[in-house]
Design goal:
The strands form five sheets. This protein has a three-stranded antiparallel sheet with strand order 5-6-11, with no helix packed on it. Strands 1-2 form a two-stranded parallel ribbon. A two-stranded antiparallel sheet has the order 3-4. The protein has 196 residues and is of the alpha+beta class. The chain is built from three helices and eleven strands. It is globular, with a radius of gyration of 18 Å. Helices cover 17% and strands 30% of the residues. The longest helix has 14 residues, at 10-23.
Length: 196
């Protein structure tokens, strides 16, 4: 999900992601902030290249035919997710990690197991996420005056707003680690990319 503290519509996006997490417990939703205190060069770059207004979200970086860009506006998230879930998976991605507290080093192995033979530019990256971030300066809230809305009278801005699953770093860069996976992959093959 692309979000920002200055975006008055974004708290509604958070409500939608909460609903999707409840409906689809295995769904991983990370928040990429743009042009605010939680943004970084990589999240700003992704938002600039793939965004479509705020809040918006990418689903496996799929470009849907009826969408202007890769990112989908929040009113369509559930429908686009269901569209993807109705298609067979082409690969299964998993990860293992280890952390050495003495040297303070993290090692992550991301594995792509391909379920069919494919040709393309395949890349993996790894998003490091902070589970919860609270900022005292607050989240802009355009719903503060909308009676009956869950965000009604919470303030504008909402003080001490809790941001969840905030992307703080992207190992392998915004477009993924290049050259680790061949252009043609056979069904049943697996490729590891190591980030240290």
């Amino acid at each position: 999900e692309f979000s920002a503290s200055w975006c008055g519509w974004c708290p509604e996006g958070d409500l939608v992601t909460d609903s999707l997490r409840e409906e689809f417990p295995n769904l991983i939703i990370n928040s990429l902030h743009a042009q605010d205190q939680l943004a970084n060069e990589i999240t700003d770059s992704l938002a600039s290249e793939m965004g479509n207004g705020y809040p918006c979200a990418m689903f496996d970086r799929v470009k849907f035919e009826d969408q202007y860009n890769v990112a989908v506006t929040y009113g369509n998230w559930r429908d686009k997710l269901l569209e993807l879930l109705n298609e067979p998976a082409k690969a299964v991605v998993s990860s293992e990690n280890s952390y050495n507290p003495v040297t303070r080093t993290l090692r992550v192995i991301v594995t792509a197991n391909f379920l069919e033979t494919l040709q393309g530019d395949f890349r993996l990256n790894c998003q490091l996420v902070e589970k919860e971030v609270i900022f005292g300066s607050g989240q802009t809230n355009f719903y503060n005056v909308l009676e009956g809305h869950p965000l009604y009278q919470l303030g504008n801005p909402i003080s001490d707003y809790k941001y969840e699953n905030v992307v703080r770093e992207v190992l392998g860069g915004p477009w993924g680690q290049e050259g680790e996976i061949p252009e043609i992959v056979a069904s049943g093959t697996a490729y590891d990319v190591v980030f240290e």
